[in-house]
Design brief:
Length: 448
């Protein structure tokens, strides 16, 4: 064998080795425990053999569906089905988490075909349904409008068909048939999860109506089953209302009650207040469910739901804007003053005195005299100073009406006080013989 033959044989051996390594690596990607979260970051769709096999919740969902089919035809056993309800609530949360993961996978890889679709449809389930129908043939989307109308309203169908036709005219990156099959399989998994979730949810609704009819009528079957799964009806009735909004909250996310339709239909600014109102009514409904026997009507829950709805509508109502009223026509006539002798007499008490009038007058061409008061301020005297120099200031005087006056009670007290002093002086005179003798000597008539 020559050198050329050796090189050819070595090259063929290397090709066989590389093909074996590629096959082993591909099998390793498929069978080496590829997790569902790794599926989102996987760029090579050809290396994925089965998308549905990556789901960890799928076996649990199948077992739950089988058990539900067995329990539906039997009478309700509250002891057995109470624990099973909590399991159903956990599975519902897990199903929703995996639906979001598969939606993210489909959205990342289908972006190369139709990038505008993720902005037009934000719902994960509807997005996967549209991807399954449209596929990578965007030019034929107008022929698929009837099929799209089963899942979307008319206006969205029209927008999607127009956007798809415009996108088909552009030179976009297309996917291979095998890659599109992987994406469609992920869409099928999402639709299967949606059907199973609906079946589990219907079972929960039918059973929670038996365990807590009033709580179910108030907040809905989904939220009611989630609250009951944590504490049970008896434990829920003993829970303080301030702790209800935090039930089910994880890593800063709101609790189960936050997702109630009564709270979600309120504006975000009023949701905290709505949570407090609904939480108080949930406790009352749970207490009624504990005490009521064989009453599945939920009349109290419906009644309180209507009350909460009316109260929240009243809270959100904007303030009433009444019509602007015109100002009244102003009345120009002078206001009526009360007259009479009593009022005239009262006014005279506050009239300006003659001395003050003289002080306010000045003689033309003559310097005004002034004085300084106790506060150091200079006060002009006017004509009052001229009259004082002539000795006529007393002639000015003041009107008797505006003189200082005392009340009758003050005058009576002063009179009594003066009479008491006079009696005291007489008593001192009679008790002192020397003073009494001097008084008698003064009273005797002098001899001629």
């Amino acid at each position: 064998m020559g050198l050329a033959d050796d090189l050819v044989s070595d090259f063929s051996d290397d090709e066989e080795l590389n093909s074996e390594l590629n096959a082993e690596s591909k099998e390793g990607l498929i069978n080496s425990g590829l997790s569902l979260h790794d599926l989102v970051n996987r760029q090579d769709l050809l290396a994925i053999d089965s998308v549905s096999g990556l789901s960890k919740v799928k076996p649990e969902v199948e077992k739950t569906i089988q058990k539900i089919s067995q329990l539906i035809g039997k009478p309700v056993d509250k002891v057995v089905e109470r624990d099973f309800l909590s399991e159903c609530n956990e599975i519902l949360d897990k199903i929703m988490e995996e639906i979001l993961i598969f939606h993210t996978f489909v959205r990342l890889h289908y972006h190369a075909v139709f990038p505008e679709l993720e902005a037009l449809i934000t719902d994960p389930v509807q997005y996967c349904q549209v991807v399954k129908i449209v596929g990578y043939t965007l030019s034929k989307s107008s022929k698929l409008e009837e099929e799209l109308k089963q899942y979307l309203p008319q206006d969205k169908v029209l927008v999607i068909s127009m956007s798809a036709s415009l996108q088909a005219q552009k030179n976009t990156q297309s996917l291979q048939e095998k890659e599109m099959q992987v994406i469609e399989e992920a869409c099928d998994v999402v639709q299967t999860f949606v059907k199973n979730r609906q079946a589990i949810l219907e079972y929960v609704i039918s059973r929670v109506q038996v365990f807590a009819p009033n709580v179910t009528a108030l907040v809905g079957p989904t939220v009611a089953s989630q609250l009951i799964a944590i504490h049970g009806v008896l434990g829920l009735s003993r829970t303080p209302s301030c702790n209800i909004p935090s039930l089910g909250s994880k890593s800063g996310n709101p609790g189960y009650l936050y997702h109630c339709d009564l709270v979600q239909q309120v504006y975000p600014d009023f949701r905290k207040q709505a949570l407090r109102i609904v939480a108080g009514k949930v406790i009352l409904a749970a207490r009624v469910d504990v005490t009521a026997d064989e009453d599945y009507s939920g009349s109290f829950g419906l009644k309180w739901r209507n009350e909460v709805t009316e109260k929240l509508e009243k809270i959100q109502a904007p303030p009433e804007n009444g019509p602007t009223k015109a100002l009244p026509i102003p009345i120009d006539q002078p206001s009526k003053k009360r007259g009479g002798r009593r009022i005239r007499k009262l006014k005279k008490q506050f009239e300006m005195s003659e001395l003050r009038k003289a002080q306010n007058k000045m003689e033309f061409g003559t310097q005004e005299e002034s004085t300084t008061d106790a506060f150091g301020e200079e006060i002009g005297l006017g004509l009052a100073a001229k009259n004082s120099q002539l000795g006529k200031i007393r002639s000015i005087g003041s009107v008797g009406v505006n003189q200082a006056k005392m009340s009758k009670s003050m005058l009576a007290r002063l009179k009594n006080k003066q009479g008491g002093l006079h009696n005291l002086s007489e008593e001192l005179v009679f008790n002192n013989p020397e003073i009494l003798e001097q008084k008698r000597s003064l009273e005797k008539p002098q001899g001629k």
